[in-house]
Amino acid sequence: MSTATVLVRTPATSANLGPGFDALGLALSLHDEVEVTAEFGGPATPVEVTVDGEGAGSVPLDERHLVVRSLRAAFAELGEQPSALRLRCRNALPHGRGLGSSAAAIVGGVVAARALTGLTAHDDALAAADRIEGHPDNVAACLLGGLTVAWRDDAGAARATRVDVHPDVAPVVCVPSFEVSTEKARGLLPETVPHADAAANAGRAALLVHALGKRPDLLLDATADRLHQHYREPAMPATYALVTALRAQGLAAVVSGAGPTVLVLGGGDDLSRVEALAEGWDVRALQVDTQGAVVEFATA
Ligand SMILES: Nc1ncnc2c1ncn2[C@@H]1O[C@H](COP(=O)(O)OP(=O)(O)O)[C@@H](O)[C@H]1O
Ligand SMILES: N[C@@H](CCOP(=O)(O)O)C(=O)O
Protein backbone atom coordinates (compact mmCIF):
# COMPACT_ATOMS: atom_id res chain seq x y z
CA MET A 1 0.00 0.00 0.00
CA SER A 2 1.24 3.58 -0.71
CA THR A 3 0.03 6.96 0.59
CA ALA A 4 0.60 10.45 -0.83
CA THR A 5 -0.62 13.96 0.08
CA VAL A 6 -0.80 17.13 -2.03
CA LEU A 7 -1.98 20.68 -1.37
CA VAL A 8 -3.36 22.54 -4.39
CA ARG A 9 -4.20 26.26 -4.48
CA THR A 10 -6.56 27.52 -7.18
CA PRO A 11 -7.51 31.12 -8.06
CA ALA A 12 -10.90 32.69 -8.67
CA THR A 13 -11.58 33.55 -12.29
CA SER A 14 -13.76 35.98 -14.15
CA ALA A 15 -14.87 34.55 -17.50
CA ASN A 16 -16.17 36.24 -20.66
CA LEU A 17 -14.97 39.78 -19.68
CA GLY A 18 -17.89 41.11 -21.71
CA PRO A 19 -17.61 40.05 -25.37
CA GLY A 20 -15.37 36.98 -24.97
CA PHE A 21 -18.15 34.52 -24.17
CA ASP A 22 -16.76 31.03 -23.34
CA ALA A 23 -13.31 32.14 -24.53
CA LEU A 24 -11.68 34.80 -22.32
CA GLY A 25 -10.80 34.38 -18.65
CA LEU A 26 -8.88 36.35 -16.05
CA ALA A 27 -7.43 34.79 -12.88
CA LEU A 28 -7.94 36.84 -9.70
CA SER A 29 -6.15 37.09 -6.34
CA LEU A 30 -8.67 35.11 -4.29
CA HIS A 31 -7.96 31.41 -3.67
CA ASP A 32 -9.31 28.05 -2.57
CA GLU A 33 -7.03 25.38 -1.14
CA VAL A 34 -7.55 21.65 -1.06
CA GLU A 35 -5.31 19.12 0.66
CA VAL A 36 -5.81 15.62 -0.69
CA THR A 37 -4.45 12.39 0.78
CA ALA A 38 -4.77 9.28 -1.36
CA GLU A 39 -4.03 5.67 -0.52
CA PHE A 40 -3.45 3.13 -3.24
CA GLY A 41 -3.71 -0.63 -2.94
CA GLY A 42 -5.41 -0.84 0.47
CA PRO A 43 -8.96 -1.81 1.40
CA ALA A 44 -11.63 0.47 -0.15
CA THR A 45 -13.00 2.99 2.36
CA PRO A 46 -15.58 5.83 2.05
CA VAL A 47 -14.24 9.25 1.07
CA GLU A 48 -13.71 11.74 3.93
CA VAL A 49 -14.23 15.49 3.28
CA THR A 50 -13.98 18.53 5.55
CA VAL A 51 -14.83 22.07 4.39
CA ASP A 52 -13.93 25.40 6.01
CA GLY A 53 -15.12 28.72 4.62
CA GLU A 54 -17.38 29.11 1.59
CA GLY A 55 -19.65 26.14 0.97
CA ALA A 56 -19.28 24.73 4.50
CA GLY A 57 -22.66 23.35 5.48
CA SER A 58 -24.01 23.38 1.92
CA VAL A 59 -21.79 21.25 -0.31
CA PRO A 60 -22.13 17.47 0.00
CA LEU A 61 -19.33 15.72 1.92
CA ASP A 62 -19.37 12.49 -0.09
CA GLU A 63 -18.77 11.26 -3.64
CA ARG A 64 -21.05 14.08 -4.94
CA HIS A 65 -18.56 16.76 -3.78
CA LEU A 66 -17.25 18.52 -6.91
CA VAL A 67 -13.55 18.14 -6.02
CA VAL A 68 -14.12 14.43 -5.32
CA ARG A 69 -15.98 13.99 -8.63
CA SER A 70 -13.12 15.74 -10.44
CA LEU A 71 -10.50 13.62 -8.67
CA ARG A 72 -12.43 10.46 -9.61
CA ALA A 73 -12.75 11.53 -13.25
CA ALA A 74 -9.05 12.39 -13.46
CA PHE A 75 -7.95 9.15 -11.74
CA ALA A 76 -10.19 7.19 -14.14
CA GLU A 77 -8.42 8.82 -17.11
CA LEU A 78 -5.03 8.19 -15.48
CA GLY A 79 -5.85 4.50 -15.01
CA GLU A 80 -5.95 3.90 -11.23
CA GLN A 81 -8.45 4.84 -8.49
CA PRO A 82 -7.13 5.25 -4.93
CA SER A 83 -8.59 2.90 -2.34
CA ALA A 84 -8.99 5.80 0.15
CA LEU A 85 -9.35 9.57 -0.30
CA ARG A 86 -9.29 12.28 2.38
CA LEU A 87 -9.90 15.96 1.52
CA ARG A 88 -9.48 19.13 3.58
CA CYS A 89 -10.96 22.12 1.74
CA ARG A 90 -10.36 25.76 2.73
CA ASN A 91 -12.57 27.88 0.49
CA ALA A 92 -12.50 31.65 -0.08
CA LEU A 93 -14.37 31.71 -3.40
CA PRO A 94 -18.09 32.45 -3.02
CA HIS A 95 -20.32 29.92 -4.79
CA GLY A 96 -22.74 30.70 -7.59
CA ARG A 97 -21.49 34.30 -8.02
CA GLY A 98 -19.67 34.11 -11.36
CA LEU A 99 -16.18 33.97 -9.85
CA GLY A 100 -15.35 30.48 -11.03
CA SER A 101 -15.80 28.46 -7.84
CA SER A 102 -16.78 25.36 -9.82
CA ALA A 103 -13.78 25.77 -12.14
CA ALA A 104 -11.47 26.13 -9.12
CA ALA A 105 -12.92 22.96 -7.56
CA ILE A 106 -12.57 21.04 -10.83
CA VAL A 107 -9.03 22.25 -11.55
CA GLY A 108 -8.11 21.54 -7.92
CA GLY A 109 -9.30 17.94 -8.29
CA VAL A 110 -7.68 17.37 -11.68
CA VAL A 111 -4.32 18.91 -10.67
CA ALA A 112 -4.32 17.03 -7.34
CA ALA A 113 -4.99 13.69 -9.04
CA ARG A 114 -2.19 14.32 -11.51
CA ALA A 115 0.26 15.37 -8.76
CA LEU A 116 -0.69 12.33 -6.68
CA THR A 117 0.31 10.12 -9.60
CA GLY A 118 3.56 12.02 -10.17
CA LEU A 119 2.44 14.25 -13.08
CA THR A 120 3.32 17.92 -12.71
CA ALA A 121 2.94 19.23 -16.28
CA HIS A 122 -0.40 20.85 -17.10
CA ASP A 123 -0.47 19.45 -20.67
CA ASP A 124 -3.64 17.37 -20.53
CA ALA A 125 -5.12 18.94 -17.41
CA LEU A 126 -6.95 21.68 -19.33
CA ALA A 127 -8.81 19.25 -21.58
CA ALA A 128 -9.62 17.04 -18.59
CA ALA A 129 -11.01 19.99 -16.60
CA ASP A 130 -12.98 21.28 -19.60
CA ARG A 131 -14.64 17.87 -20.05
CA ILE A 132 -16.04 18.23 -16.52
CA GLU A 133 -16.88 21.96 -16.57
CA GLY A 134 -18.33 22.07 -20.09
CA HIS A 135 -16.78 25.40 -21.14
CA PRO A 136 -13.04 26.12 -21.22
CA ASP A 137 -12.80 29.81 -20.27
CA ASN A 138 -12.65 29.63 -16.45
CA VAL A 139 -10.69 26.40 -16.22
CA ALA A 140 -8.04 27.79 -18.60
CA ALA A 141 -7.48 30.94 -16.52
CA CYS A 142 -7.63 28.96 -13.27
CA LEU A 143 -5.02 26.50 -14.49
CA LEU A 144 -2.65 28.91 -16.24
CA GLY A 145 -3.24 32.21 -14.36
CA GLY A 146 -3.36 35.67 -15.92
CA LEU A 147 -5.46 36.46 -18.96
CA THR A 148 -6.24 33.47 -21.13
CA VAL A 149 -7.83 32.90 -24.51
CA ALA A 150 -9.36 29.41 -24.70
CA TRP A 151 -10.82 27.46 -27.60
CA ARG A 152 -11.51 23.90 -28.66
CA ASP A 153 -9.47 22.33 -31.45
CA ASP A 154 -11.10 20.48 -34.34
CA ALA A 155 -11.13 17.26 -32.31
CA GLY A 156 -13.01 19.09 -29.52
CA ALA A 157 -10.12 19.25 -27.02
CA ALA A 158 -9.73 22.47 -25.03
CA ARG A 159 -6.66 24.57 -25.70
CA ALA A 160 -5.56 27.92 -24.27
CA THR A 161 -2.88 30.55 -24.47
CA ARG A 162 -1.86 33.29 -22.05
CA VAL A 163 -1.67 36.99 -22.86
CA ASP A 164 0.26 39.51 -20.73
CA VAL A 165 -1.92 42.03 -18.90
CA HIS A 166 -1.06 45.75 -18.75
CA PRO A 167 -0.09 46.77 -15.16
CA ASP A 168 -2.79 49.50 -15.12
CA VAL A 169 -5.58 46.89 -15.36
CA ALA A 170 -6.76 46.65 -11.75
CA PRO A 171 -9.81 44.39 -11.36
CA VAL A 172 -12.55 45.39 -8.94
CA VAL A 173 -15.42 43.00 -8.20
CA CYS A 174 -18.84 43.85 -6.76
CA VAL A 175 -20.19 40.66 -5.21
CA PRO A 176 -23.90 40.49 -4.33
CA SER A 177 -25.34 38.43 -1.49
CA PHE A 178 -27.52 36.35 -3.84
CA GLU A 179 -26.49 33.41 -6.03
CA VAL A 180 -27.38 32.52 -9.61
CA SER A 181 -26.15 29.13 -10.81
CA THR A 182 -24.22 29.00 -14.06
CA GLU A 183 -26.62 26.30 -15.22
CA LYS A 184 -29.58 28.64 -14.81
CA ALA A 185 -27.78 31.56 -16.47
CA ARG A 186 -26.77 29.39 -19.46
CA GLY A 187 -30.37 28.22 -19.77
CA LEU A 188 -31.41 31.81 -20.57
CA LEU A 189 -29.27 32.01 -23.70
CA PRO A 190 -30.91 31.63 -27.13
CA GLU A 191 -30.01 28.83 -29.56
CA THR A 192 -29.08 31.35 -32.25
CA VAL A 193 -28.12 35.05 -32.31
CA PRO A 194 -28.35 37.73 -35.00
CA HIS A 195 -25.35 37.81 -37.34
CA ALA A 196 -24.83 41.51 -36.57
CA ASP A 197 -24.50 40.75 -32.85
CA ALA A 198 -22.00 37.95 -33.48
CA ALA A 199 -19.98 40.23 -35.75
CA ALA A 200 -20.02 43.05 -33.18
CA ASN A 201 -18.80 40.71 -30.44
CA ALA A 202 -16.02 39.28 -32.61
CA GLY A 203 -14.66 42.79 -33.17
CA ARG A 204 -14.93 43.80 -29.51
CA ALA A 205 -13.37 40.55 -28.25
CA ALA A 206 -10.38 41.06 -30.54
CA LEU A 207 -10.12 44.68 -29.36
CA LEU A 208 -10.38 43.54 -25.73
CA VAL A 209 -7.30 41.32 -25.93
CA HIS A 210 -5.37 44.31 -27.27
CA ALA A 211 -6.88 46.70 -24.69
CA LEU A 212 -6.05 44.42 -21.75
CA GLY A 213 -2.52 43.90 -22.97
CA LYS A 214 -1.53 47.28 -24.32
CA ARG A 215 -4.33 49.90 -24.39
CA PRO A 216 -6.36 50.06 -21.14
CA ASP A 217 -7.78 53.39 -22.39
CA LEU A 218 -9.87 51.36 -24.88
CA LEU A 219 -11.44 49.10 -22.23
CA LEU A 220 -14.86 50.73 -22.20
CA ASP A 221 -15.48 50.13 -25.93
CA ALA A 222 -13.68 46.79 -25.76
CA THR A 223 -15.96 45.34 -23.06
CA ALA A 224 -19.28 45.88 -24.87
CA ASP A 225 -21.25 42.62 -25.27
CA ARG A 226 -24.32 41.64 -27.29
CA LEU A 227 -24.23 37.85 -26.90
CA HIS A 228 -25.05 36.99 -23.30
CA GLN A 229 -25.40 39.77 -20.72
CA HIS A 230 -28.79 41.20 -21.69
CA TYR A 231 -30.29 37.70 -22.16
CA ARG A 232 -29.37 36.99 -18.54
CA GLU A 233 -30.88 40.19 -17.14
CA PRO A 234 -34.12 38.50 -15.95
CA ALA A 235 -32.12 36.31 -13.55
CA MET A 236 -30.04 39.22 -12.23
CA PRO A 237 -31.72 42.61 -12.81
CA ALA A 238 -29.64 44.31 -10.09
CA THR A 239 -26.44 43.12 -11.77
CA TYR A 240 -27.50 44.39 -15.16
CA ALA A 241 -28.56 47.73 -13.64
CA LEU A 242 -25.19 48.14 -11.89
CA VAL A 243 -23.26 47.29 -15.08
CA THR A 244 -25.33 49.86 -16.97
CA ALA A 245 -24.84 52.54 -14.30
CA LEU A 246 -21.07 51.97 -14.09
CA ARG A 247 -20.68 52.01 -17.88
CA ALA A 248 -22.66 55.26 -18.06
CA GLN A 249 -19.93 56.75 -15.83
CA GLY A 250 -17.23 55.57 -18.25
CA LEU A 251 -16.19 52.52 -16.20
CA ALA A 252 -15.50 49.24 -18.04
CA ALA A 253 -18.02 47.09 -16.15
CA VAL A 254 -19.19 43.63 -17.23
CA VAL A 255 -21.06 40.68 -15.78
CA SER A 256 -18.40 38.40 -14.25
CA GLY A 257 -18.76 34.93 -15.77
CA ALA A 258 -22.40 33.90 -15.73
CA GLY A 259 -23.06 36.46 -12.95
CA PRO A 260 -24.30 37.84 -10.70
CA THR A 261 -20.99 39.50 -9.66
CA VAL A 262 -19.99 42.65 -11.55
CA LEU A 263 -16.36 43.03 -12.67
CA VAL A 264 -14.84 46.45 -13.36
CA LEU A 265 -11.65 46.45 -15.40
CA GLY A 266 -10.28 49.80 -14.39
CA GLY A 267 -7.42 51.35 -12.55
CA GLY A 268 -7.13 51.54 -8.77
CA ASP A 269 -8.34 55.16 -9.00
CA ASP A 270 -11.82 53.88 -9.92
CA LEU A 271 -12.44 52.15 -6.59
CA SER A 272 -14.21 55.04 -4.86
CA ARG A 273 -16.38 55.68 -7.95
CA VAL A 274 -17.37 52.00 -8.01
CA GLU A 275 -18.13 51.99 -4.28
CA ALA A 276 -20.34 55.06 -4.67
CA LEU A 277 -22.54 53.28 -7.24
CA ALA A 278 -22.40 49.81 -5.70
CA GLU A 279 -23.84 50.57 -2.28
CA GLY A 280 -24.86 47.33 -0.54
CA TRP A 281 -22.51 45.20 -2.66
CA ASP A 282 -19.32 43.61 -1.34
CA VAL A 283 -16.79 45.67 -3.35
CA ARG A 284 -13.28 44.20 -3.44
CA ALA A 285 -10.17 45.52 -5.20
CA LEU A 286 -8.23 42.49 -6.41
CA GLN A 287 -5.12 41.82 -8.47
CA VAL A 288 -4.54 39.63 -11.47
CA ASP A 289 -3.30 36.21 -10.29
CA THR A 290 -0.36 35.30 -12.49
CA GLN A 291 0.38 31.85 -11.08
CA GLY A 292 -2.77 29.84 -11.76
CA ALA A 293 -3.15 26.48 -10.03
CA VAL A 294 -0.19 25.71 -7.80
CA VAL A 295 0.82 22.46 -6.11
CA GLU A 296 2.03 23.88 -2.79
CA PHE A 297 3.49 20.58 -1.61
CA ALA A 298 3.38 16.92 -2.45
CA THR A 299 4.58 14.12 -0.17
CA ALA A 300 4.87 10.51 -1.18
N1 LIG B 1 -14.95 24.24 -3.57
C1 LIG B 1 -16.07 23.57 -3.91
N2 LIG B 1 -16.34 22.37 -3.35
C2 LIG B 1 -17.45 21.69 -3.69
N3 LIG B 1 -18.37 22.13 -4.57
C3 LIG B 1 -18.15 23.31 -5.14
C4 LIG B 1 -17.00 24.09 -4.84
N4 LIG B 1 -17.06 25.20 -5.58
C5 LIG B 1 -18.20 25.14 -6.29
N5 LIG B 1 -18.86 24.02 -6.04
C6 LIG B 1 -20.14 23.59 -6.62
O1 LIG B 1 -20.37 24.41 -7.76
C7 LIG B 1 -21.54 25.22 -7.55
C8 LIG B 1 -21.34 26.60 -8.11
O2 LIG B 1 -21.02 26.48 -9.47
P1 LIG B 1 -21.56 27.50 -10.52
O3 LIG B 1 -23.07 27.52 -10.51
O4 LIG B 1 -20.90 27.17 -11.81
O5 LIG B 1 -21.08 28.92 -10.00
P2 LIG B 1 -19.64 29.61 -9.95
O6 LIG B 1 -18.66 28.63 -10.54
O7 LIG B 1 -19.83 30.82 -10.78
O8 LIG B 1 -19.38 29.91 -8.51
C9 LIG B 1 -21.76 25.22 -6.05
O9 LIG B 1 -23.11 25.43 -5.73
C10 LIG B 1 -21.27 23.85 -5.66
O10 LIG B 1 -22.27 22.88 -5.93
N1 LIG C 1 -18.69 31.32 -20.17
C1 LIG C 1 -19.41 30.85 -19.01
C2 LIG C 1 -18.67 31.30 -17.77
C3 LIG C 1 -19.29 30.83 -16.48
O1 LIG C 1 -18.50 31.31 -15.41
P1 LIG C 1 -18.92 31.10 -13.88
O2 LIG C 1 -17.82 31.70 -13.08
O3 LIG C 1 -20.21 31.83 -13.70
O4 LIG C 1 -19.07 29.63 -13.67
C4 LIG C 1 -20.82 31.41 -19.04
O5 LIG C 1 -20.95 32.62 -19.23
O6 LIG C 1 -21.78 30.63 -18.89
TrEMBL record:
Family of this protein: Belongs to the GHMP kinase family. Homoserine kinase subfamily.
Enzyme class per UniProt: transferase
Cytoplasm is among the record's keywords: yes
Subcellular location: Cytoplasm
GO terms of molecular function: ATP binding; homoserine kinase activity
Pathway(s) per entry: Amino-acid biosynthesis; L-threonine biosynthesis; L-threonine from L-aspartate: step 4/5
Alphabetized UniProt keyword annotations: Amino-acid biosynthesis, ATP-binding, Cytoplasm, Kinase, Nucleotide-binding, Threonine biosynthesis, Transferase
InterPro entries hit by this protein: GHMP_kinase_C_dom, GHMP_kinase_C_sf, GHMP_kinase_N_dom, GHMP_knse_ATP-bd_CS, Homoserine_kinase, Ribosomal_Su5_D2-typ_SF, Ribsml_uS5_D2-typ_fold_subgr
Reaction(s) the record says it catalyses: L-homoserine + ATP = O-phospho-L-homoserine + ADP + H(+)
Name this polypeptide is given: Homoserine kinase
EC number assigned by the record: 2.7.1.39
Keyword Transcription regulation applies: no
GHMP kinase N-terminal domain ranges (all copies): 66-146
Source taxonomy: Bacteria, Bacillati, Actinomycetota, Actinomycetes, Jiangellales
Species for this entry: Jiangella alba
